[in-house]
Amino acid sequence: MPYTEERGANQPMGVDVPRIVTLIAVHDRRETTLQCLRSLLHTQQPFQGQLFVVLVDDGSTDGTGDAVRRDFPEVDIVQGSGQLYWAAAMALAEQRALSLRPDMLLWLNDDVVLDPDALARILHVHAAYPDAIIVGSTRHPDSGAVTFGARGRVDRHPQRFRSLPESREPEDVDAFNGNIVLVPRCAHDLVGTIDGGFAHAQADDDYSLRAAAAGVHMITCPGTQGTCAPTLPRPVPEGSPLVVWRALQQPTARPWRGQLRYLRRHAGVRWPYYLAASYVRPLWAGSRHWRPGKDL
């Protein structure tokens, strides 16, 4: 169901405006999710577009789905199994969204609180670069420092990126975090769908590199478009090599199937070296104080 003027949006029904379908994946962050949806559906300044929302509730147990149904009945909720994590949940949301014949897909993390002019600014950049993926940025809610958004390649390694500072003008970038991203249908048709074969992370990096390979430009939206707290670094697990290896195989860590999938696709002939190297350091760091007999 579209978010129409009667519900406080920007465009009346029947006007020929682009259809924007927002993709959101959620799990057990009820108040965070509701705050994100309020910023998207209740506070945006007028913009040229008809907005839809597809939200995948991946097995929430804190009442997230019911709260969204109560407060935002226009949101299309897809129920997940609880084992999808970000990549597969976003892929599922995208599959539902494509049935709505979108002109644009808007990726949005549920821990983002959008600025009131966020969509207007993103669509303004889109109007100047209609074939490009438009990358939004977020800032720390307290310090104002950039937390997620545009990224640049560090070297030839396909997993080494650096976060870029906010830009004053639209700029080409190498990759992006998937927190706020506008993908026009023409770019989507060249790049393809989000790869839900990854466990959790890597899907946005994968999409970035696939876009670059397809000749699709990724352009920053100047400034920042919302707030989002940074993700704390995951500590290296400690214990025996087997304990460390098992910890690395958790969906939100570095499971080997995802690493293999990613590196074979983007690392060329060097993928076996990169695959081995990605585990040598954490295995050594996590087990360097372990002695046989301490644990299994």
Name the features.
disordered N terminus; 296 residues; Spore Coat Polysaccharide Biosynthesis Protein SpsA, Chain A; 2 domains
General description of the model:
The chain has 296 residues and is an alpha/beta fold. It has 2 domains: 5-227, Spore Coat Polysaccharide Biosynthesis Protein SpsA, Chain A, CATH 3.90.550; 241-287, no CATH class. The chain is 33% helix and 18% strand. The protein contains 9 helices and 14 strands. The protein has a 7-stranded mixed sheet. Strands 5-14-7-8 form a 4-stranded mixed sheet. The chain has a 3-stranded antiparallel sheet with strand order 10-9-11. Helix 2 (64-71) links the parallel strand 2 and strand 3. Helix 1 (30-41) packs parallel to helix 2 (64-71) and helix 8 runs antiparallel to helix 9 (271-287).
Highest CATH level, the class of the largest domain: Alpha Beta
Radius of gyration: 20 Å
- Compute the number of structural domains: 2
From the N-terminal CA to the C-terminal CA, the straight-line distance is: 53 Å
Average pLDDT: 92
Fraction of residues in H or I helices: 25-40%
* Overall number of strands: 14
* CATH architectural type of the largest domain: Alpha-Beta Complex
Can you tell me the overall shape?
A: globular
Count of helices? Answer: 9
Q: SSE string, helix = H, strand = E? A: EHEHEHEEHEEEEEEEHHEEHHH
Low-confidence stretches: 1-14
Measured by DSSP, the beta-strand proportion falls in 15-25%
CATH overall fold name of the largest domain: Spore Coat Polysaccharide Biosynthesis Protein SpsA, Chain A
